[in-house]
């Protein structure tokens, strides 16, 4: 596969989403323009999580826009408190839900408690509020859902398997656990992380193997 073909595949995977240095702030600002009319607002850490949630919904035949479910990338877990405070000031009445990584679960708990959304002390109590935790993160969940062989097949289809093999041969990563190598590969570039958020979810959904946190979140935000 030549460079032009790889670029075209990458463009298609990012179709409809922002990328580049200003993408995080622009994506947050754009999503926030929709929360005033939302019935449910889903708070996620970044754009890759937003892409994953919205892609999973499409794969399940859902139209979140029509359901008035808005996914907001808040710009990192530490922004949860600031985001909830701004919602209170704007008198946002939408039901809240969310997705976070295991390392940031405590930050989400404190933010929800400080905003009087609830006082979740356990993961089960977080889920009762509509917030679901990935172990260790969403990329890890998706890699385990597809298995190393399945992810490598996907990389090959996008012309990226050679680049991944190069990473595996680097002294710092040689002999490391394949899941860790893959997470490093996906996180080594912002565009790569964003486009594979869509591609990994599509592949997992095609196998009816969406990770539990993502699947449970979609169920939780279904509007009657």
* Rg from Cα: 18 Å
Chain-averaged pLDDT: 90
Number of strand elements: 4
* Structural class assignment: alpha/beta
Q: Biggest sheet: strands side by side, in what order? A: 2-1-3-4
- Helix amount, in percent? 55-70%
**Biggest pleated sheet:** 4 strands, parallel
Distance between the termini: 46 Å
- Provide the low-confidence segments as ranges: none
| Global outline | globular
Report strand %.
5-15%
How many DSSP helices?
A: 12
SSE succession: HHEHHEHEHHEHHHHH
Describe this structure in words.
This protein is an alpha/beta fold. It is 57% helix and 9% strand. It is built from 12 helices and 4 strands. Strands 2-1-3-4 form a 4-stranded parallel sheet. Helix 5 packs parallel to helix 6 and helix 8 crosses helix 11. The protein is globular, with a radius of gyration of 18 Å.
